[in-house]
Structures are given as C-alpha cells and as structure tokens.
Fold this sequence. Notes:
The complex is a heterodimer.
Chain A: H1 2-20, H2 28-48, H3 52-71, H4 79-82, H5 92-103, H6 107-145
Helix pairs in contact in A: 1-2, 2-3, 3-6, 5-6
Chain B: H1 2-21, H2 26-39, E1 44-50, E2 53-59, E3 68-73, H3 81-96, H4 101-113, H5 119-136, H6 141-163, H7 168-189, H8 195-204, H9 208-220, H10 224-255
Antiparallel strand pairs in B: 1-2, 2-3
Helix pairs in contact in B: 1-2, 1-4, 2-3, 3-4, 5-6, 5-8, 6-7, 6-8, 7-8, 7-10, 9-10
Amino acid sequence: MVYLIDFIYAYMCTIGFAVLFYAPKDSILKTGFSGAVGWTVYTMMNNFSDSVVISAFFASFIIALLGEFFVLSKKHPITVYIIPAIIPLVPGFGLYYTMLSVLEKNYELALQYGSESLLIAIAIAGALTIVLSLNSYRKEKKKSLF
Amino acid sequence: METAKKDVLLLALYAGEILLKNGAETYRVEDTITRLCKAKGFNDTNVFVTATGIFVSIDKDINHNQVISYIKRINSRGINLNKISKVNNFSREFVKGHISIADGMDMLRKINEISIYPHYIYAFFGGISTSFFALLFGGNMLEFGSAFITGILVTYVLNFLTNIQFPPFLTNICGGMIAGIMAIIFSSLHPSVQIDKVIIGSIMTMVPGVAITNAVHDSINGDLVSGWAKATEALIVACSIAFGVGFILKLWTIFF
Lengths: 146, 256
C-alpha cells in the first residue's frame, strides 16, 4: 500500500519533469511508468539494505532495461525514456546541500554530502552504461554473424 | 565538388549543434556527425566533441589530401528531448539517401524552431513536479500546496529569464532566491511547513543532478574532457542555487 502511494507520487513527478525537459508527447506516459517503477524498486531496496548507493544502482538498472524495451518501437532514442525517469534518484539535492554546507563553513558535512552525491551519480551512470553498452555489443555481434 | 563537401560538413555540424545544445550525450553527437558524413561518401571523418565545442574534419579517403575542417563553439546548453529525438529520426532517414542536402538543411532548421509546450503548461507542470517531489521526500499536504505555488513561480521566472538570455549564473541565483523567499513566507504562515521540503523540488528543476549523472556517464564512456566540463557545470549550478537560497536564509536569520 505504501509502495502504491510512492508509485503514484513518482509517476506524477516524472511526468512533470518529462514536460520540463520537452519530452515528445507520446513518450511521456512510458517514461512516467519507468520512473515510477525505478523509485518503487529504490524504496524497496532501501528497506533491505542500508546503502542508498546500491538501491540507486538497482533502480537505474531497471530503468535502463525498461528504456531498452520502449526503444524497440523505434520512435525515439533511449535518452528520451531515461533522463526524466532517473530524476527522482538523481542527487540534485545532495549537490545543493554540499555547496550550502561549504558556504556555511561546515566542511565535514560538505564532505559527507559531496561524497554521497558523487557515489550515487556513479551508481546511476554505471548501471545505465552497463545495460546500454551490453545491448549495443549484442547488436553488433548479431550484425557480424549474419 | 568542393561546395558539396562544404555543404555536407555544414549540415552534419548543424545537426550536431542542435543535439549538443539540447543535452544529448557526447557519443551520440559524434556518432550522428560521422554517420551523416559517411552517408555522402566521406569515409575519413574525424569528430571531437566536448561540452563547449565541436571539431570536425572530413575527406573522401585517407590518401586524398583535401581535408577540410570546421570548429563550432557551443555557448548554451539545456535539455530538450523532443529535438534530440527529431534529429535522431532525421539522421536515420538521411542515411537512407533519398534526402538532398538543401532539403535536409531546411528540415533541420524546422526542427530547431519547434516548441511543443506553451509557457503556462510548462509552468503548470513545473508546479506538478515540484509538489510531488515534496511528497516523495515525506512532505505533508500543506507542503504539497506551497511547493506547487513555489514551483510554478520558479519555473515561470526561470523560463522567462532564459528566453531573454539573461546570464545563466544570475538566472540560477534568481531561481534560488525566489525559492528561498517563498519557502520562508509559507513556513511562517503555518508551523508544520518545513523550509527544506518546499525548496527541494524547485532546486531539481534547475537540474544539477542530471548534469552530474551525465558527466559521470560521459566519463565512463571515455569522453573525459566533456565529462569534466559537465561536472564543472553541475558544480557551478549547485553553487549558484546555494548562493541564492543561502543568501535569503541568512538575511532571514539576521533580521528576524
């Protein structure tokens, strides 16, 4: 039940950001879906492990897989489905808090927020790269075989 | 012959410029330019793309000795997924070979001028995303409402300032200041409204988070120069937002 509410909130949030990023109209509902699934996976993983980085990794892995699935219709490149969907996971607030702590001369807190933001960004980008490059490798192999 | 070479180069460069200005990944820009040039028979194409510029040189083949090169400086970067998608589809059509260069240039110009959502819808969805972000991070219904109004205001002002080409650094400072002022007003109206929850969503609309993730993504792909450039940009954006918000919060604690 809690997950369902989270799912709806994340769906609306992702749709809002899809419009802010001028996503094409027929892609908005799809990217909203993958964003919502990603966030639900993230909250579920957070219950099992105490590391936000691992949760972000698995969530963006799922988002990238869903993106590859949506791309099969060959209407839009995968960027369109991925960028709005990773928004709830992305460490924008952490980055802002890092700079705010620096401005307030609270360097210990800044280091803590900064390293966490960087690790989350690496986890998200790493998961995306793993899925995307494995898929393009597979396609190339297929092309060279036939 | 020479003019044809130059036209192909200009077309590919224009496509790359649209992609880069609207937030495509570096490898996608390089890939598109290479494909467009190869489609017209220029097999020796070298492209180097960073976040702030495109460098291309093309030739028929490696022994032909008539290389021409072009450099394009890119000043502003935003995110417009619709244009990325349109240019991607265009390049797929162009590679098939039945579009002439002049027609292709016209199609690209049309793509560059599209805007799919009017201002008020854009601002409204800015409010939606900001307010649901507040809920996602554990806000209550009052915070939802105040984040909605703050989001609409911040998105509208940012969009307006970007359109009149106000300096980006000052634009983000203004966004942060408006978010700070609105958050303070709402939190003093009712004690259960927390300043952080109102601000969190409006900050996401200025996207330092997507920028840092893209930076890491580029670096992992081997585009190290543009990875660092994008990371710097993300830090500068975060810094300007923190400056705007921090300034307002500091004033508030000094005077009240």
